[in-house]
Amino acid sequence: MSIWEYANPKKFMQTSAWALPWAVGLTVVLLVVGLVWGFFFTPDDYKQGSTVKIIYLHVPSAMMAINAWVMMLVTSLIWIVRRHHVSVLAAKAAAPVGLTFTLIALVTGALWGQPMWGTWWAWDPRLTSFLILTLFYFGYMALWAAVEDPDTAADLTSILCLVGSVFALLSRYAVLFWNQGLHQGASLSLDKEENVSDVFWQPLVICIAGFILLFVTMVLLRTRTEIRSRRLKALLARERVA
Amino acid sequence: MMPELGKYAFAVMGSYAATAVLIAALVGLTLWQSARMKRALAEVEARQEKTDG
Amino acid sequence: MKALLLRDLRLAFRSGGGFGLGLAFFFLLSVLVPLGVGPEGGTLGRIAPGILWVGALLACLLSLDRIFALDHEDGSLDLLATAPIPLEAVVAVKALAHWLVTGLPLTLIAPGLAVFLNLPAGGYGWLVLSLLLGTPALSVIGAFGAALTVGLRRGGLLLSLLVLPLYVPTLIFGAEIVRRGAEDMALATPLALLAAISLGAAALLPFAAASAIRVNLR
Known about the structure:
Chain A is an all-alpha fold and about 240 residues long. Chain A has helices at about 5-40, 55-80, 85-115, 125-145, 150-180, 200-240.
């Protein structure tokens, strides 16, 4: 009978084991319904033509790119305060997922912008902020990889996540300021704060839900792997001592 | 069946393709890492069962 | 604390202390950029604020890993951590030493280098002021990054990767001050924001850095 080091990870493994199939199922259903509806059964936008179909990828991924970092921030705080290993391992697990969403947001943003702006890349404040966000993700992941001792890595990356969050927020405002300061033609806002009409909004909501579930599924899976990895290291350390 | 994408076909299809690739890469990597870790852990646990038991 | 400051300064100025490396790099950059971009005065003048700020920023980066590394290697960091003065104060003093040895000299030679980059006349004063206000932020943020990576062998590249994103707001506001100053536009906003960043960083980051050092010394 395997002995898990701590009660918490054991409970997490048990709970996630039964939750995972549901998460996967829900993810697939929501994504398929949302994307098929959005792609095949919505009209073109009068201003943006068929590129409006990119909204079903760009908006959910951009939202999740931010939400993933927020989740990492919260779980890092929980680690700092309560020392729950599962929490910090979940943060570590979430980083590559958040990074992937950020990249999707960047690529779809650039592709959406190209026909609108005529260039492959425009230093639009939102796109720029997401570019900076990828740097924060890279830094966080690199620090985890560089530090040998897992608990030390957990502590250092959590501190980095905290400080990084403050600077990420500062950067967001700095970039807004930076682009407004240049008096060029107004950059089209890709995330329309104007009312998105219902015909687009309904499938969009489903896609957003699908991406949320995708995030949850991926983090569950990856956290399980992290917990196993931690268990493996502990067992190997025990072997070396014996 | 396929909607008329017109001149934006590259942007739209490109977005969907890129997204699919990125998500497939993430899922693939995740599953591969999970399988590898499960295998490694099972090996070490079996080894330790033998010496413990 | 003054003793610590003087000691760090003496170490930096000693041969092998690396003083001047940042300055030399800054100078090199100011020569290389025109070589790369072309001698056209208008172009250079337009990008001068950005180049000068990026150059100062990168030059600061060069000596960051020294902030704690030497003391860590010979064990004096452990002593400092258990000394009567709080570790947060130690961090602040070391950041100050870094600024005196790197940031301040960079600020002082910047106007000279601005000549190479054809900075418009109106920008010179603002260049010095923005660097004066902003380089302390660079030193403190850098000290935080150095604290995170102090335990790592060859942490230099990782240090850059961690610190450069944190430098973004400082860079944006700093360069914007010089740009607007050169064009005689209103710059109260970026000036205030840059000052706020420096003050906020100096007040708060030593705490984060001290936590990181304690983690690394465990």
